[in-house]
């Protein structure tokens, strides 16, 4: 039985607490938050968990085996590092840290101490993304041509991060999980329409080492909420629409192909394939619960989860490269460039 | 009564011919096409129009007052120039020409001869775009923040132009009509997934002189057809979805604003406005017929249409700049740069 | 080569004429309409067809092999009977006649003279209905439980027929084609909200001899156009939405079943199956053209089409029974009752 | 401060408990359920409420002012009557009772003891229904022609009630609130496709005293969930789609009207009005919380809520009449008939 401590009981912490409570192999040992009101809320829902004001007391508590961190991004590094140094396993909210350097230090620390370091890329545990992953792994989509995502809504304007770190992070994590190809460069342009606020709208292009192209459209100032991703493959194409209550994933047997037409020797013809559509049944298990269970399993079996620190680091590299590109008015920034510099 | 000659009776020519036939103030005098089969088709639908094989005979025909050109892009310049030199008024398909220089020469020629030169930006005559134009002109959207368009479908792969010249041209023409602000730079990235074919997928960013930002997503290799544009304004936002059979234009009374909250002196708060949605009734008059009528009216009244040669030239400048940017891996290209160079 | 004459060139006649023109095995010989304006329109599109004012001259014309009738319902019987008596094959618009007696007389006449009598149930030739037919015939839906159709829109208010004869006729024809079971009774309630106009809204229930139940909701006074049918089977269920541009037919692997649960010996449990959805690729061939080709094929091969006079008669029986039920405030009317009475 | 006791902590009881907890003017005093597991769940969420096994102890508890009943329908009467006789105010789940007689007895008892008796018609407190109520009250829809509701989904098959008592009850409650007109008769047909289970599919027609017509389509065996209601008025029409996350209510400025056309003296013409659509902003306050607050307000102010016992009784009358009609194969049953008989 893994004893879990949660740091931060604001927006996301309660979800983590509930997921731990629903996991047979874990017990919710302690919750820390500087806010007395937050601790009061935590007590009403989890009366058996100890409430702690200062996270430093939680991460060093000998009755805690694993620490989950749901605090503002800027604090992730300090808390996670302290927990790792205290010998705890760590699940940290995404993005893992606000710089590549800090993310890399966490990876090194976890490795040195042989601790599980997981980044909360919740989406990869959804039935939808799991199913798409299977389709790609089975070769049913063929070669991946593109990933095209629209992730827009009205608000919430964040104060500490811009729309890239808030929304594009989801797509970076999903692509990191789905694709074998690795990003080589990112180009991004962003705009902020409210003075003294972080950028609220951005368009990002990600170039992969196999020629695939990803594009992300993120926006806090849209009239409606859209969560739609098109994935184009040489054999089939997918629409993943997270706003649908059913049929979130649709697989289209459509595409183009060359045909050699003997009548026109000097040119190659394009034929269109407009076949059936298929919406697979998706697992309805809650993603966060699956993720917490996987975290516990990795601790107990001493294995590495997919969304480990390396994965979190790769996502931070993309975020940092995208931010850098926005300051260059969209000039592509190569992945690895920032890492080497730091 | 304006006597019209149509050059090219392939895909679009029949639509022009029908629109002329439905216009009381014009008569369909002649149709030219090198293909005998095309002329046969034209005869069956328009038995009273004279059929001509060589367009050169049509553009110099004294019984023709105005020439409409529906041929491949690469031929627009030669035919339009010959028609203008023969003293004809000209309606030419978009894009007006394949280079900025050629487009500018047509503008000069039309001006020198005091002829009407119109570019067939059909969309600006739709009830939807007319209505959005009215909303912007009335100030009901407030300041324009962004224009975000998705224009994707499966095929048709073009042979002579890439997806930018085929699809983005529509958005350039619509923005040219809707916005008072002028583009200052374009950034574009494109990819082609079929060898020896033009690029079939592109993402374009257009930077305006008032800070507004446009983004276009065009793709010939998508599983479904999408024609959706979001327009964000400081007061209201619009979704224009051309695939809807009704309610193509939805106006959302939504947005964000700063509020000065006396309780927190040192920070400015953001408030969200989630008000009603309104779908205005749109004119159902066919856009192409409205456009042909406007063409005839401008000839008769000796006035200039909105979508004149200058407008067509501005659109070609954007197309050329976007194409140039794709060759620079998305580096922004300033508008005017190419013009001055040529 | 079958020589076709068309009676009536108003709303639907031009579609028939065009479909004949697209059929290699038929030639459009003549068109009749009392209106000179209609004949003028016909001439412009079909200059080689002879134009005739009086349909009596067309149906007896020796150069005509087959007559297609697209006139108001009240005239179908007289024209079709005259054509059959003159030895012509007949394709008549639905509903075939305005009474069961008249429909039965046409069936008898066609049989006595060994002529093809087809009723224009166009929908059964669509790719969508053809596909659903195949799914049912293959047993993939299992036993049919219900057919539930919503067919509403704003207008057109008809003058000569009410909404049942105008819209429910489509569902009656589709069900006649899809289902092996036969209707035994119909219950219908109707309302008219405009004085001195036919009923514009109706709800109909059809009881089948195998226990299946159909329900039709038809309305000329709805704010939006809906064309949606749910078909529930013991194995799978279908949604047929004719307003979709793609994915008109969706097949759901969903349902309920009893499970014998050993833990609860005294009760049988219900389990739910929520499986995948599948949208088969549909033929995009125009239904009317397929139907005209089938009409010609049946004439040439001396065979009977599915939508023959018997099928048309069955549909008229349902319409008459439904109308009768509305006058009884929804009391069920047995099929065959009216027939025997007449 | 009203002290509330809740009877039944199964599916709906926890929602009532949470709503009470969110109401400043009420306190959750006690919860009763025969199931120890249910009481354990209740304790974890509401540790300060007393847990009681037998409802009889709760309804007579002097520390309880008001009783909320969330138990199976068949038990409503006994529990509510006991609570009223003990002088408690009562909020009872819908349907209020399983017979008209029992419902009427509860109304009489509440009146005799001057207690508030409310039936939990939650939907009438939603922002959507409140807004439609306002549109009708303001005369913006004009005369009401029809109410047409589709309320279908897959499962849950109920054991104790059929689909009419489970789903149509919502529409009966909504119509009771929206319309000034009163139902005069109900016709219903139902079918059950699973042996030994209650009917799972039904179609109901409700005839109103002003000529309006309602139709309800309810079904537990549909492939997808639909919650859609069309309301047709002489001036405007409404679509209320509860499955939409935004724009649940759309108001269409559409309809038909007679026009006197001088050119055709002997007939009256119909004109169509296809105007704008408008989706009002809806209150997002949770309906159940609003309802509980209204319950408390009525107790404190000694006033009668809209959804009082009389309203609950009217709904039960409709349910009973519909059930009766299904046994008569859809023959209309007059409202009041059953009441007088009982």
From TrEMBL, chains A, B, C, D:
Q: Where are the transmembrane segments?
A: none
Q: Where is the Gfo/Idh/MocA-like oxidoreductase N-terminal domain?
A: 2-121
The GFO/IDH/MocA-like oxidoreductase domain is annotated at 129-236
Q: Which GO terms describe its molecular function?
A: nucleotide binding
Which residues does UniProt call coiled coil?
Answer: none
Tell me the InterPro entries matching this sequence. Gfo/Idh/MocA-like_OxRdtase_N, Gfo/Idh/MocA_Oxidoreductases, GFO_IDH_MocA-like_dom, NAD(P)-bd_dom_sf
| Superkingdom, taxonomy of origin | Bacteria
Under Gene3D superfamilies, the record lists: Dihydrodipicolinate Reductase, domain 2, NAD(P)-binding Rossmann-like Domain
Return the PANTHER family for the record: BILIVERDIN REDUCTASE A, GFO_IDH_MOCA-LIKE OXIDOREDUCTASE N-TERMINAL DOMAIN-CONTAINING PROTEIN
Report the protein name in the record: Putative dehydrogenase
Q: What is the scientific name of the source organism?
A: Amaricoccus macauensis
């Amino acid at each position: 039985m893994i004893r879990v401590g949660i740091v931060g009981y604001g927006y996301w912490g309660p979800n983590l607490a509930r997921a731990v409570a629903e996991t047979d192999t874990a017990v919710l040992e302690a919750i820390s938050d500087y806010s007395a009101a937050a601790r009061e809320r935590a007590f009403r829902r989890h009366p058996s968990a100890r409430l702690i004001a200062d996270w430093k007391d939680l991460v060093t508590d000998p009755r805690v085996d694993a620490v989950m961190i749901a605090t503002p991004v800027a604090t992730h590094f300090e808390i996670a590092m302290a927990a790792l140094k205290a010998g705890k396993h760590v699940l940290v909210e995404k993005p893992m840290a606000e710089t590549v350097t800090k993310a890399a230090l966490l990876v090194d620390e976890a490795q040195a101490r042989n601790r599980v370091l997981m980044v909360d890329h919740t989406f990869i545990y959804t039935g939808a993304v799991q199913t798409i992953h299977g389709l790609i792994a089975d070769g049913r989509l063929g070669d991946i041509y593109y990933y095209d995502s629209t992730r827009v809504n009205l608000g919430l304007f964040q104060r500490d991060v811009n729309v890239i770190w808030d929304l594009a992070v989801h797509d970076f994590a999903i692509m990191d999980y789905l694709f074998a190809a690795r990003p080589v460069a990112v180009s991004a342009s962003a705009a902020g329409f409210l003075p003294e606020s972080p950028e609220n709208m951005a368009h990002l292009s990600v170039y992969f080492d196999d020629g695939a192209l990803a594009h992300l459209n993120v926006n806090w100032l849209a009239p409606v909420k859209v969560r739609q991703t098109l994935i184009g493959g040489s054999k089939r194409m997918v629409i993943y629409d997270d706003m649908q209550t059913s049929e979130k994933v649709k697989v289209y047997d459509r595409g183009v192909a060359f045909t050699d037409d003997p009548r026109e020797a000097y040119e190659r013809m394009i034929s269109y394939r407009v076949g059936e559509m298929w919406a697979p049944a998706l697992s309805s298990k809650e993603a966060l619960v699956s993720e917490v269970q996987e975290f516990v399993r990795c601790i107990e079996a001493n294995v590495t989860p997919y969304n480990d620190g390396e994965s979190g680091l790769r996502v931070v590299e993309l975020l940092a490269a995208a931010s850098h590109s926005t300051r260059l008015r969209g000039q592509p920034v190569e992945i690895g460039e920032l890492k080497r510099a730091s």
